[in-house]
Amino acid sequence: SGCRPRDRRPHATTRRRADPLEVFFAEGNWYCWAFCHLRESERLFRVDRVHAVDVLDEDFEPPEETARPADIFHPSDDDPRVELELPPDAAWVIESYPTEAVEELPDGRRRVRLVVSEQAWLERLLLRCGPEARVVGSPAFDGVARDVAARVLARYDEGP
User: Are 7 and 1 in contact (CB under 8 A)?
Assistant: First the structure.
């Protein structure tokens, strides 16, 4: 019939030496972008699929320019969008995540529009940006920052 059944064997485990260049969270998983010495090129590793890590007593110089991993997240037109006003010290958001719009505000803040893959991602982003980051013009996400901050504070109140 011209087709073969898929190979159902688990992926082979290999031992590799890798120099990590970047670790990031996308689409519900943690990834490590690293130079793989086995393949002699940069590779993307899903952290939950790494069985063990040995930290070597060696330093390495990361290359000045690396090819960034292919986009993990491919938004659709149906994915929700959020507009955030970010303080000047949260400009890293613009460099770290794909933005659909960026507007410089007179006070040094920036208004950005981002696609939200999941609310938990937005919550983590808002916590990292600090209390000066605000959701604006996005009714579906009003109160997200307040709610996640309250949940985090409640955990501290619970004690050990």
Answer: no
Q: Which two tokens stand for residue 107?
A: 């006070």
**61-99 as b/e, with b when 16 or more CB fall inside 10 Å?**
eeeeeeeebeeeeeeeeeeeebbbbbbeebeebeeeeee
Residue among 47, 58, 49 nearest 13 (CA): 49
Cβ distance 122 to 103 under 8 Å? no
35 forms bridges with which residues in the sheet?
A: 19, 42
Measured distance CA(56)–CA(117) in Å, rounded: 35
Predicted pLDDT at 4: 45
CB 104 within 8 A of CB 45: no
Q: Model confidence over 56-114: pLDDT tens digits?
A: 998 888 777 766 665 566 677 888 899 999 999 998 888 878 889 999 999 999 999 99
pTM for the predicted model, two decimal places: 0.57
Q: What pLDDT does 159 receive?
A: 67
CB 115, CB 71: distance < 8 Å = no
